[in-house]
Specification:
The complex is a heterodimer of chains A (387) and B (422). Chain A has 387 residues and is an alpha+beta fold. Chain A has 12 helices and 7 strands. Helices cover 64% and strands 11% of the residues of chain A. Chain B is built from 16 helices and 5 strands. In chain B, a hairpin with a 3-residue loop joins strand 4 and strand 5. The chains are: A alpha+beta (387), B alpha+beta (422). At the A-B interface, helix 1, helix 4, helix 7, helix 8 and helix 9 of A face helix 1, helix 2, helix 3, helix 10 and helix 11 of B.
Chain lengths: 387, 422
């Protein structure tokens, strides 16, 4: 059974509970009015009303069919007893009307949505009305009771059936909205992913923003202005939907021309960027390397972070990058002859290194190692696996 | 290495917020509640109201032989018909009933009430009871479905109170006929009360189901997810950076930078850095809990390694549904508030790190036997579980198996059709 049907039944049972309790209690109050019923009628009627209320509670707790039939039978028993009495006064007539139109009719609300529920509810209503007709033929005028009973059963049945329809329709719409939202979410996640994946672009943007945050001290104003303009243009291309993911593999090559109109991910663009900011990068080693786009982005990003650290901390304006490869691995070694440091004294978990270098390489299965000591320069070895 | 301080600070400041749902979704939600389904509910309530009004009319006709000459309730019925007619026509002409007309029509119901009460007053002893006035109560049922339900309920209560007072004032002459008189008074308010309960129950049900349906979309995401907001924020940060860099590049901002521009550059860099590296341990589960109006108050997630992201789509569905069913159980009275805490831990024996992880769900404030049986089926789909009953609730330990080859939310899995909402 679908969960929403369970919820629907719970709602219908709650409505039936309110209706049934009000009906049973109302009938009981009518009988309790002084002078309304004989002591025997009062005693039997009260017990039966309480039984009806208990059965309403049982039926609406779990939705079992048998207590529901008991509610109808109990109500009918009281009605027969009151209707066949020698004196039928206004109060007992009212009690009968309430039992027929409210207490017994309450079970129609949850029953009508069951399998063959309409048939069942119609049959039960017909039974109660038939009983009233037989009792009336015997003795008194019970038209008011019959009208109340018919109206009560009809109203309760209609209410239950239309709540069922409303919920079924709403469920369809909820599914539609959910599917649309899912599509929206996936698109949004994908876009965020694409922006996060534009790592090389963001690396240069972050480096330039860091320079600007220090008011551009230490870099030539012209170079900085040009760098800022370049980065702004790249960001605009990203915003306007330039293809970020041209292919699954990219060529990692020092000779490749830095194409101003595309989001270049070549080594040359990295070299030019650092040249503008006053760090000369000398390239050694392998000519062309075919690497998956993701791996290449990670390697270039980590390389850029290392060079940025050289530029800011080493005290020299020259660095060497050596790229070697074997069957399984591509290694890039970033070497400077600067001030160096004691690797143990730097917290490896610091966000900059851990996230920008180690984390980045980890996502593509690579790793990084640092060799350094004060006064004798620094070497960082970056490794990424070949496909 | 690069300066970590601003980024770290910004990370701490970066609170995990519930995203404001996109306008379209909110509209769709209101749409479901008000028009789709809601219209059907209004139709059903209207039919029930017509049935009740007809019953009152039959009652009036049955009483006809007992009316005194010149004291028949027919003017009251005509007045009621006029008010209803104007309301129905107005509803057909303009889909939205203007407030002033609504108030005029409500006030118009005073006419049948007054005419009926003055026609039947003093005759309860001979069995003549108000009919049109009680029918006016039933007329308010569809109003409750179309407009808010509070005003109609109050109006119906007022009608019932007037009718009850009328009956009680005649207790001397009417004797036992006071009882049907009071029953007629009650019949003015009971149908409206039921309609109100039905409407509020329906709306609550739709709201909950819709919330679950929206949150279920998290199930289809990749191992780590950035959430609905992140893309928007990242785009905004990129745009801000672009503007600043463009200003510098074009010379609109001088170098060296003025302090406020430098500060802006620093904060943009820090926020951008956080946005670019975040989301590695934020999983669908965290987003599901945060975005749900029902889960976010009661469920906490402790998943430092993002292990929940390793679960397959089926396992995620099961886990989400189980959490849902825990909090879906309506709370009775002022008991201890329900809390659910989900903790994911790496398996302690390190024999096979890829085999899975342990999850424990601490549920407090609800007894184990009160939990919906469907919850246990849902939990079973997550993994082999073991329930430990405590004083205040219970704990479920689940050994989650992870299929190494299956990646939930991978592009191929996304395309696959799957059943929702059951």
């Amino acid at each position: 059974m679908k969960r929403i049907h369970k919820e629907r039944d719970r709602l219908l049972r709650r409505l039936a509970r309110v209706t049934g309790f009000v009906g049973a209690a109302g009938a009981l109050v009518c009988l309790l009015v002084p002078g309304a019923a004989t002591p025997v009628e009062l005693a039997v009627g009260s017990v039966l009303c309480v039984i009806v209320a208990v059965l309403v509670g049982m039926h609406t707790a779990r939705g079992a069919l048998l207590p529901a039939l008991g509610v109808v039978a109990g109500s009918m028993a009281v009605m027969v007893m009151l209707g066949t009495a020698s004196v039928v006064d206004a109060a007992t007539t009212t009690a009968m009307a309430i039992l027929g139109g409210v207490a017994s009719a309450s079970v129609a609300i949850p029953l009508v949505v069951h399998h063959r529920g309409r048939l069942l509810v119609t049959a039960l209503a017909a039974t109660v009305l038939g009983m009233i007709w037989i009792v009336a033929a015997w003795s008194h005028d019970l038209r008011a009771v019959a009208v109340a009973t018919a109206a009560g059963w009809a109203a309760c049945g209609v209410l239950g059936a239309w709540i069922d329809r409303a919920i079924a329709h709403a469920a369809d719409r909820i599914d539609e909205v959910g599917r649309a939202h899912e599509a929206e979410r996936l698109a949004s996640e994908l876009e965020a992913q694409q922006r996060q994946d534009a790592r090389v672009l963001h690396d240069t943007v972050l480096a330039t923003l860091s320079l600007l945050a220090h008011s551009g001290v230490g870099v030539g104003p012209t170079a900085l202005r040009q760098q800022a303009g370049d980065d702004a243009r790249l960001l605009r291309q990203l915003r306007l939907g330039a293809p970020l993911d041209a292919g699954s593999t990219a060529i990692f090559s020092p000779e490749a021309e830095a194409d101003d109109d595309a989001l270049s991910t070549t080594f040359e663009s990295v070299r030019q960027r650092f040249a503008r900011m006053g760090l000369a990068v000398n390239w050694h080693g392998a000519g062309q390397l075919a690497l998956p786009r993701e791996t290449l982005d990670a390697l270039l990003g980590a390389l850029g972070e290392c060079l940025e650290n050289v530029r800011r901390h080493s005290g020299v304006n020259e660095a060497d990058v050596t790229v070697t490869d074997d069957d399984r691995t591509v290694r890039a070694m970033v070497t400077d002859a600067g001030s160096g440091f004691e690797p143990e004294t730097v917290d490896g978990a610091r966000l900059g290194y851990a996230e920008s270098v180690v984390g980045r390489l980890n996502t593509v299965g690579g790793r990084a190692r640092i060799f350094s000591s004060p006064g004798s320069g620094t070497t960082v070895m970056l490794e990424v696996p070949k496909p | 290495m690069s300066d970590p301080a601003p980024a770290a600070r910004s990370r701490a400041e970066h609170q995990f917020r519930r995203p404001a749902r996109s306008a379209r979704t909110v509209r769709a939600a209101a749409d479901v509640r008000e028009s789709h389904g809601g219209r059907r509910l209004a139709t059903g309530i209207t039919i029930a109201a017509v049935v009740i009004v007809l019953a009152h009319l039959v009652h009036a006709i049955a009483q006809a032989p007992y009316f005194l000459i010149g004291r028949a309730p027919w003017p009251a019925w005509i007045a009621l018909g006029a008010v209803v007619g104007v309301g129905v026509i107005a509803r057909f002409v303009s889909r939205v009933l203007p407030d002033w007309l609504y108030l005029v029509l409500l006030a118009g119901l005073v006419a049948p009430l007054w005419l009926d009460v003055s026609a039947t007053a003093g005759q309860l002893g001979s069995g003549v009871m108000p009919t049109a006035a009680a029918a006016a109560g039933a007329v308010l049922m569809p109003v409750a479905a179309i407009r808010g339900s509070r005003v109609p309920l109050i109006a119906a209560s007022v009608i019932a109170a007037v009718l009850a007072t009328e009956a009680l004032l005649q207790v001397e002459s009417a004797k036992l006929f006071v009882v049907p008189g009071l029953a007629v008074a009650a019949s003015a308010v009971l149908p409206v009360l039921l309609a109100t309960l039905a409407i509020s129950g329906f709306r609550r049900l739709v709201g909950r189901e819709l919330d679950l349906s929206l949150v279920q979309s998290t199930v289809g995401t990749a191992r780590s997810a950035v959430g609905m907001r992140a893309s928007e924020e990242l785009a905004q940060l990129d745009f801000d950076a672009e503007t600043l860099l463009d200003d510098v590049g074009s010379g609109r901002i001088m170098i060296p930078l003025p302090p406020d521009a430098a500060e802006l550059a620093g904060s943009l860099a820090a926020r951008l850095r956080v946005r670019l590296i975040e989301g590695r341990t934020d999983t669908w589960l965290r987003h599901a809990v945060t975005e749900s109006a029902y889960l976010s108050h009661r469920v906490t997630v402790d998943d430092p390694l993002g292990s929940a992201g390793l679960l397959s789509q089926e396992q995620r569905d099961g886990l989400l549904l189980a959490l849902w069913l825990f909090v879906a159980e309506p709370q009775k009275g002022a008991g201890p508030t329900l809390r659910v805490h989900v903790a994911c831990r790496e398996r302690s024996d390190d024999s096979d790190p890829d085999a899975g992880f342990d999850m424990s769900i601490d549920v407090s404030g609800v007894a184990r036997r009160r939990v919906d049986p469907a919850t246990w089926d849902a939990i079973s789909s997550v993994g082999i579980h073991n329930v430990v009953t405590g004083a205040d609730g219970f704990r479920i330990d689940i050994a989650c198996r992870v299929m190494p080859s299956i990646h939930a939310g991978s592009p191929s899995a996304r395309g696959a059709a799957r059943s929702r909402g059951s």
